[in-house]
Structure formats: C-alpha cells, structure tokens
Amino acid sequence: MSKQHNQRRKKFSIGRIFVYLFLTLASLVSLFPFYWMFVMATRPSAAYNSIPPTLTPGNMMVENFKKVLNQIDFFGGMWNSFILCAVVTIVVLFISSLAGFAFAKFKFPGKNALFVAILVTMIIPPQLGLIPQYFLISNAGLLDTLPGVMILFFLNPLGIFLMRQYIAEGVPDELIEAAKLDGCSNFKIYWRIVLPIILPAFATLGIIVFTAVWGEFLWQFTILRDPEMYTIQVALAQLSNTNNIDFGMILSGVFWATVPLLVIFLLFNRLFISSITEGSVK
Q1: pLDDT, tens digit, for every residue of 168-220?
Q2: For 10-19, 49-58, 117-126, 223-232, which range has the lowest pLDDT when averaged over its residues?
Q3: Which GO terms describe its molecular function (predicted)?
Q4: Cβ contacts of residue 182 below 8 Å, gap of 6+?
Q5: Is cis: bond before 52, omega within 30 of 0?
Q6: Are residues 23 and 113 in the same domain?
Q7: Claim to verify: residue 83 and residue 221 sit in the same structural domain
Q8: Which pTM does this prediction carry?
Q9: Are residues 227 and 147 in the same domain?
Q10: Residues 208/107, Cβ–Cβ less than 8 Å
C-alpha cells in the first residue's frame, strides 16, 4: 500500500513539475515582447535592426522619452485615453449587467431570438460598419469629440453574453424570489443583490473592455482630427510621420503608454480575487 502511494506521489510530482515548467515557459514567451519593447525604449534607433538582437537595456530611456514629449502631447493623449476608457468601461458594465440580468432571470417574448441576434453581431467585422458609422456620427455633430468615439463602444455583445451566463449560474432564483416577496423592485434586486454577486464578472469584463478600448486605433483615428482631442494611440501614430523613423523614440512612447494597462490589470485582478474570497450571498 505504501509502495503504491509512493509511486502515485512520484507520478504526481513529476506531472506537477512538467506543468510548472510549461507555465513558466508560456509566461516567459508572453512577457518577452514587453521586455523587448522596454529594451528598445532604452536604446538608439539603430539597435532595432541589429544582428544579433540586443537583449540588454541601455541608458537612453530618458532621452528617448524627451523626444516623444517634443513631438506629441503625450500626457494630453494619455488623459484623453483614460477618460475615454473609463467612461466606456463604466457604461458597458452597467448596460451589460442590466441586459444580462434581464436575459438570465426574466421571461419576455422574443428573448431567445434577441439574444441570438446580439451574439451574431460578434462575428461581423467592425470594419464593415466604419463608413455608415462615420456618417451617423458626422450627422450627429460628434466628429472630433470623445463622445463621438465613446458611443460606438457602449453596446458590447461579449459583455452581455458574459453577464448573462454569470448571472444565470451565479445568482440563485430563490434569492430573487425572496427579494420579490419582501417587496423589492426589479432594479432594487439588481442593485442590492445581483451587483454584489457579479463583482468577479465585473472585474473580468472591466479588464477586457478597458484594454480593448485603450488599444483600439482605427475608429479613434477616423473620428479625431484635432491634436488636442487625440487619444494616446492616435498621438503615437504621429511619431512615424517622419522621413527618418526613430524606433527608440517610438517604442519609448509605446512602453510608457502600456504601463497604465498593467496598473489597471493589477487593480482589477485584486478586486477579482477579493470578490471570490469574500463571497456575496449571505
């Protein structure tokens, strides 16, 4: 008995070692582009095409970033991007959670057909709607404004799907029925009962939406023309509009524009973990 137990333990240990090795390798592969970007941000432009590749940091981080500040309004672009992403994330979380609550816990005519129609929009390439969306925003007088950029992201099919699935499985029907017996309105049930339970889903969806909007370029570049309204993605694109491209300068700007995403991820990740450990149903 003891011999079989030791064999199983040995197999388990070997399996765990392979899993850890694989996860370590996958993590290194995932982090390498960010590290390489950091290295290039500290090097002169010639290091970009050097053979063999340069893999150690240099001493030009400050100098390259000063070049970025001389070329574009970096902090203005960062502020515009933060406002854009924060507003879009809050609105998407609110709309998606309300819609997910309705699809998960209410019965109304055409519910399944409407839900399927929302999911179908996920397979349509966004580029196909670029021209009609541009004319709609233009006719509404929202060109060259942040609201004109925001409004396109407010309805998020993926967010509605995630919230619907999470609420359907994570919010007990008995809890909602008990709240209705106590005289709670539907919105009060959503606000007092559903929201505390779905905080982990909020954290996950918040990370997805914030990073997706922060990294989106095509729509922002189409709508924004005033340099004062540029988001950081559009502003960084102006760094390559020169004859002699300075890769060190460009990657320095890209590196510092990526740092807020890491901060947001860590903040939402902490909320995600704490929400799971605290529990919601009392």
Answers
A1: 988 888 989 988 888 889 999 999 999 988 888 888 898 889 999 999 999 99
A2: 10-19
A3: ATP binding
A4: none
A5: yes
A6: no
A7: yes
A8: 0.84
A9: yes
A10: no
> Between the CA of residue 157 and those of 93, 161, 167, 212, what are the distances in Å?
11, 6, 15, 14
Which residues form the domain of 18?
Answer: 2-49
Instruction: Give domain status of residue 247, yes or no.
Output: no
CATH of the domain at 182: 1.10.3720.10
Closest by CA to 158, choosing from 70, 227, 96, is 96
Angular region, 85: left φ>0, alpha ψ -120 to 50, beta rest: alpha
Domain count, the chain: 2
When pLDDT is cut at 50, 70 and 90, the band that residue 282 belongs to is very low
Residue with tokens 């609550």: 101
Residue from 231, 118, 224 nearest 164 by CA:
118
Q: Are 121 and 157 in contact (CB under 8 A)?
A: yes
